[in-house]
Amino acid sequence: MAAIEELQLLNHLLNIKEWGVVEDAGITEDYFQVHKNAFEFVKGFKKINGHLPTIETVMNKYDTFELVELENIEHVIKSMKEDYLYREFKPILVSASATFAKKETTAAIQQLQAEAQRFLKSIGLSGQGYSYIGNAQARFDAYDKIHGRAKDEIIGMTTGFKPLDLATNGLEYQDGAVDFFLVFAPTNMGKTLISSFMMSAAWNSSLDNDYPAYFALEQRASEIAHNWDNTLAKVSRLALTRGTLSNEKRDAYAEFIDRLKQKKKDMVIYDLKSNGGKPYTLDEIHRILELEGHNRWTLDQLSKVRITSRGSGDLRQRLFDVSAGVRDLILDTGKPAMIVAQANREALKKIKKDITENVDATDIGEAFSIVQDASKGISIVKVSENTFKILVIKNRENASGQSFLIRYDFDTGIVSVLDDSIGEQYF
């Protein structure tokens, strides 16, 4: 514990009357364990009065504050920084050691690697800047890998809907283009239905190394899995939960399950039960993605993410923080994600009044920053019992505003796109 260094730094500040010493060094109240109150008092005094207090003023207010001999100030600051880094990094080592003690060596290494990278980023040591000239050849080589593609051939994973793929280039995960794909709508408009379909459609048509994760913070894992069975096995969604499949359909379902069990790749659903009944934090999601090796993920939904810090603010601030955290997580891991969010009540009122109205970026609700954080985004409006309108509301580096209709037959599990330019497209 660097109590003596804390006193030395405070004495130095009060002697030279220069607050810039701590600002230049990046020293905050977090670096103080013993004399934090005295530091906060000096900081507050400076803010209110425009100058630092005298040493006598601080000594009269805090019995633990005293005069000490000053060593080299650079040594004092270095010592305080090292002490702070030690306290911050120690829990990471302890946690990884506990995993290692369980003889889960690979998991311990992955955990330590992920946490260490995040730690380095938090203290501004994540790497050097991007050289425009130095990376010129790399940019050309990256382009050359995709040169000659047809205009209707997408780079990313399919969304399951051809017009959406053509508009957005799919769910991208290449260097420099890792998608934060926003899916949002008013309540009860099919956000979970559409997002879970988009995830399974890509999985059903992608390479063998696809291993996505679905974080269900509202519905149970079995409900999401039944959505997938509905469209992949082509069996009635309602009959699956009521036991009313015909004998023929029951046998077809059994055959699908047998084929499914032969697949080498999987999809994993993490619901509240998987996390002891609590919503996941972004740190927990990050750890799961790294430890389990998922290459992409879906979060349903953004407002349900648990905030661990105290005083997390109102809903607007919560959503701002979580959305920014999601964006950082996507960029840190290079794993693209579809993020489900809810539009505001005014959007729902608008749709109920006129079903032909669009839900656009201004209807996102409490925090427009969600749209700003996203690289791509769609809104969903349920126009009839089994028909949904999808509107592209964000499409970085591409045009937006495209819309199309989806017909979702819950009884047969058939999903079709109704679009004049493409015709009727079935899955």
Tell how many strands the DSSP assignment holds.
12
Strand content: 5-15%
Q: SSE order, as H and E?
A: HHHHHHHHEEEHEHHHEHEHEHHEEEEE
Distance between the termini: 63 Å
Helix content: 40-55%
Q: Name the strands of the widest sheet in spatial order.
A: 5-4-6-7-3-8-9-10-11-12
Summed over residues and divided by their number, the pLDDT gives a mean of 86
Uncertain regions: pLDDT < 50 for 5+ in a row? 421-427
Judging from the principal axes of the Cα atoms, what is the shape? elongated
- Largest β-sheet summary: 10 strands, mixed
Q: How many helical stretches? A: 16
Which quaternary structure do these chains form? single chain
Question: By helix and strand content, what is the structural category?
Answer: alpha/beta
Based on CA atoms alone, the radius of gyration comes out at 27 Å
Compile the SSE list and pairings.
Elements: H1 3-16, H2 20-25, H3 36-49, H4 55-61, H5 73-101, H6 105-122, H7 136-146, H8 162-168, E1 173-174, E2 177-178, E3 180-185, H9 191-205, E4 213-216, H10 221-232, H11 237-242, H12 247-261, E5 268-271, H13 282-292, E6 297-300, H14 315-333, E7 337-342, H15 345-353, H16 369-373, E8 376-384, E9 387-395, E10 403-409, E11 414-419, E12 423-426
Parallel strand pairs: 3-7, 3-8, 4-5, 4-6, 6-7
Antiparallel strand pairs: 1-2, 8-9, 9-10, 10-11, 11-12
Helix pairs in contact: 1-5, 5-6, 6-13, 9-10, 13-14
Overview of this structure, please?
With 427 residues, the protein is of the alpha/beta class. The chain has 16 helices and twelve strands. The protein has helices at 3-16, 20-25, 36-49, 55-61, 73-101, 105-122, 136-146, 162-168, 191-205, 221-232, 237-242, 247-261, 282-292, 315-333, 345-353, 369-373, and strands spanning 173-174, 177-178, 180-185, 213-216, 268-271, 297-300, 337-342, 376-384, 387-395, 403-409, 414-419, 423-426. The strands form two sheets. It has a ten-stranded mixed sheet, with helices on both faces. Strands 1-2 form a two-stranded antiparallel sheet. Helix 5 (73-101) packs antiparallel against helix 6 (105-122) and helix 6 (105-122) crosses helix 13 (282-292).
